[in-house]
Write a structure and sequence with these properties.
single chain; about 260 residues; alpha/beta; 7-stranded mixed beta sheet; globular
């Protein structure tokens, strides 16, 4: 039975992000961690939930820790890891308690996907991440992008919401920390704002990817009825992911940086 369109949309985002992470993770599976001689990397997934990426990374031979505030999500993570016969550690917590949970200089790779939108202080959050990532380590940051949200609100007829989002404080000030979360999904960032946060915390920005440029605009019925549509959509998303002209159209921005 074919997966529903909603699942295929999710796999589109995962495919593009994974294609950016996989080369680094495959190389790292044959290299020792900076902290010792063990093969593989220490990978920390903040807000990793049920382990969709964590288990996949664990299958490459890396040591993966998921920090998430939800006990239910961590229980689902444990079940998924056992089903795949992968050792993944789950710990309850969030960015505010991260240093108490895992300690400084504890990870070669940190995934922070869909978390920066809801933290109280993005500047402080990035500073914490910089303390957790080892020197030479990598940060993978995935966050909602504001320009696409304005377009989506307008297309749905929510013109006042689009206007409010357009004139959010972050578009006028230097620091996203001043912006109060708006709506259920919290903050949204532009490419420049996200890069400034990362650089301000001491990271060096390496790569930027446009995520879900077309996926949220494609009717679910097309993915359900058109043979091969999902595969072609993934190919299209991957083709435009590194083209800067498509960044303003992306629902999310994926940024890779190193210390």
């Amino acid at each position: 039975m074919a997966a529903p369109a909603s699942e295929r949309r999710g796999s589109t985002r995962t495919a593009v992000v994974w294609s950016a992470l996989e080369p680094m993770l495959v190389r790292g599976s044959d290299a020792g961690s900076d902290a010792g001689s063990d093969v593989g990397l220490d990978v920390l997934d903040i807000g990793g939930g049920t382990g969709g990426l964590a288990v996949r990374i664990g299958e490459l031979g890396h040591r993966v820790t998921v920090v998430d505030p939800s006990p239910d999500a961590l229980a689902a993570l444990d079940r998924r890891a056992r089903e795949h016969d992968v050792a993944v550690t789950g710990r309850q917590g969030d960015l505010s308690s991260l240093l108490d949970v895992v300690g400084p200089d504890s990870a070669d790779v940190v995934l922070c996907h869909g978390v920066l939108e809801i933290v109280d202080d993005p500047d402080a959050a990035l500073t914490t991440l910089a303390r957790v990532v080892r020197p030479g380590g990598v940060l993978s940051l995935l966050a909602a992008q504001r320009h696409a949200a304005v377009v989506a609100r307008a297309m749905a007829g929510h013109f006042q919401q689009a206007l409010a989002l357009l004139d959010s404080p972050t578009s006028q000030g230097p620091s996203p920390a001043a912006m109060a979360p708006s709506g259920r999904t919290g903050r949204r960032y532009t490419h420049a704002e996200l890069t400034a946060l990362v650089v301000g915390a001491g990271f060096v920005a390496d790569q930027i990817h446009a995520i879900r440029v077309f996926t949220d605009l494609v009717p679910g019925s097309l993915l359900d009825l058109e043979p091969g549509a999902s595969t072609s959509l993934v190919e299209l998303e991957q083709a435009v992911a590194t083209r800067p002209e498509y960044l303003p159209l992306a629902t999310q921005i994926h940024l890779l940086a190193h210390r």
